[in-house]
């Protein structure tokens, strides 16, 4: 009996090795801005007007449904992305939001942006963190454009474009 139980357990474990699905991905980048944290935070937490510094967004439409706030980003290169605000914490200077759907090769994408004091009172560090999965949730073969590399490239492109524009926007004020 012990041998049968051991055999069944071994077979179940062997099958679970191959049934792993996608692995979580993460992009985390930061930028130093020559402005006080309070000044930077006022811009970063303005969920409704991020198109002022998001270089790939031509328009934002904001909707409130129940207790949830959503924004639809119209992308300059075509397409739309729907995001939901998950929270704004003024004490921690942290805004959290997620991609609900849209023309990006990521799934289950949760992001947050924090603002912290830099080396002096007139310097801030903004950090953008995104956690997500590739679009294709099943095991290989993975369709082109729905793989981990495509998801990472897309999120890196978003953050790499946005942070310098945020810096430029705030420092030019």
Automatic annotation (TrEMBL):
UniProt keyword annotations, A-Z: Signal
Short name of any one Pfam family annotated for the protein: Polyketide_cyc2
Highest taxon above the source species: Bacteria
InterPro entries (UniProt xref): Polyketide_cyclase/dehydratase, START-like_dom_sf
Keyword Signal found: yes
The UniProt record lists the keyword Signal: yes
Signal peptide positions on this chain: 1-19
This protein's name: MxaD
Organism: beta proteobacterium KB13
